Amino acid sequence: MRFSRAFIPTKKESPADAEIPSHKLLIRAGFIRKVASGLYDILPLGALVIRKIERIIREEMDRAGAQEVILPIMHPAELWLESGRWDVYGKEMIKFKDRHERDYSLAPTAEEVITDLVRKEIRSYKDLPLNLYQIGRKFRDEIRPRFGLMRAREFIMKDAYSFHATDEDAEREYWNMYETYSRIFRRMGLEFKAVEADTGEIGGKFSHEFMVIADTGEGKLVYCEKCGYAASTEKAEQPKPSVPENREELFKPVEKVHTPNVKRIEEVSEFLGIPPENILKLLVYIVDGQPVAVAVRGDREVEETKLKQVFRGKEVRLATDEEIERFTGQPKGFLSPIGLKIPVYADYSVIPMVNFVAGAGEKDYHLKNVNWGRDFEVKEFIDVAEVRGGDPCPKCGAPLVEKRGIEVGHIFKLGTKYSEAMGALFVDENGQEKPMIMGCYGIGVTRVMAAAVEQNHDENGIIWPVEIAPFEVIVIPVNVKNDEIREVAEKIYEELKEAGFDVLIDDRNARPGFKFKDADLIGIPYQIIVGKGVKDGLVELKERKTGERQEIAIGRVLEVLKSLVSKN
Q1: pLDDT of residue 441
Q2: How far is 131 from 177, CA to CA, in rounded Å?
Q3: CA 9 to chain centre
Q4: Judging by DSSP bridges, how do beta strands 401-415 and 206-213 pair with one another?
Q5: CA distance 175 to 169
Q6: pTM here?
Q7: Torsion angle, CA of 427/430/434/437, rounded to 10 degrees?
């Protein structure tokens, strides 16, 4: 492609509303343009990247035995009512009526539509297993669209759904998809971790997220370098500590202390001169309308996704100040577990605590030397604290490493949640009718493009991995008015095209510095700079990722590039 004919509207400045590197750079480099909040045009450079991402996905999904379909993005409400998700999915689902006043939604996901297709066509165990996938647009009315393509209202997604006669076969396909996703992201040149994850609204027995490691990631993950354990912090487990031996012999008498206007854990710690881990934090939650108290060590935070899994409630939320006082009779900031009329659930982090500080249930007072078992009863010890870097691995005990990451893929073992609700049945080898066992597997295609930029950029622009770069090579003649320079550049350009390279030639009549800045901003992996060296039969090759430059003979450009690209 010729730069002079290409639609590549680069910009010097980042948009005012762009907060993260991918949002800034994809706009500055001419890959996307904003239409409205959460809605973006994908420009030619962006489309080239998207097509390469899709190509890798298709090749690996086909290799794994999946088959591609194209499903509608307009879904009738009847299917979602059958699954029970029409009123549960939430305000993110974009709903509307057609001219006949029938209810529809724009697809946020496609479990219902694919299950409807399969239940109409599959009758026997002989027709299973089956894995169908599509790559298409999805719509979610995000409450706060932000970060460009990272959290948009319209996006491109690869979603696959598998159907099985046995649980063993469903699990086999789950791990088949796990390996397939690992190959996909490795081929894209991304540093990623597959981590145990919460199943969320999709449901199912277990799931894994594939997270691209990036400092700007919205999610957090922990992993063990010794045994390989990895999980999102929404799912990461704590090893359950043992109760200290002879703990009752260590108990001291409870002591009430005056703590005027001291509420927050940090304030209590400073006022009493004790570390936060010796203070009990007590929170009140409403679980399906009923209040419960959740206790956690003072230096820890409750991970509410884990809490929801413990209670299996449809709604778990923090109580309001008014609800706290109504249900406990105590002022917020001084809550005491002693004498509470609501059940107290304590995180594992509370088990080893002895003679700790807790609220007194009275304004401006705390209690020293409080102990569970003696002063208050714990209904159940539960694992709900957020796991952090340095905590012991729940599998081998080695210290965990904490990173931030961007979720780009998610796989679920669904079981029979949708097949039972929607009557997707098959006849087994014994003539018995049973619900199909399902799995689902998603990749955020446009999110992958943004995540790749978050992981691969510098102060000059994007640094694309070769496999998903819009072009592998850019040929830059420093002076197109110089016949010799222009002719050599054109010859190299044609030779690379003929050899199958995706190549861009910057044939604009512009200053060399201007061209170099655009090449770095766009992030093309290799630059062939054609300048004064042509008199000696030489051109310069610059690698965008490392900044390394080398002079090579004009006749060796193709050979050298083939070697470099094959290594990547």
Answers
A1: 97
A2: 10
A3: 30
A4: antiparallel
A5: 10
A6: 0.88
A7: -90
Question: At the fourth CATH level, which superfamily is domain 471-567?
Answer: Anticodon-binding domain (3.40.50.800)
Break the chain into its structural domains and give their ranges: 46-72+108-237+402-454, 247-382, 471-567
Question: CA nearest 83: which of 418, 486, 405?
Answer: 418
CA angle in degrees (0–180, nearest 5) for 495-497-503: 115
* Bridge partner residues of 213 (DSSP): 405
Q: H-type helices in 239-320, by residue range? A: 265-272, 304-311
**C-beta separation of 463 from 457 below 8 A:** yes
pLDDT tens digits for range 353-369: 999 999 999 999 999 99
Q: How far apart are CA 171 and CA 207, in angstroms?
A: 11
Phi, psi values for residue 294, rounded to 5°: -120, 120
Q: Alpha-carbon distance 435 to 118, whole Å?
A: 12
Residue 492 has pLDDT above 70, yes or no: yes
CATH number of 46-72+108-237+402-454: 3.30.930.10
In order of 192, 315, 319, 378, the CA distances from 287 in angstroms are 35, 6, 9, 17
Q: Tell the CATH superfamily of the 247-382 domain.
A: YbaK/aminoacyl-tRNA synthetase-associated domain (3.90.960.10)
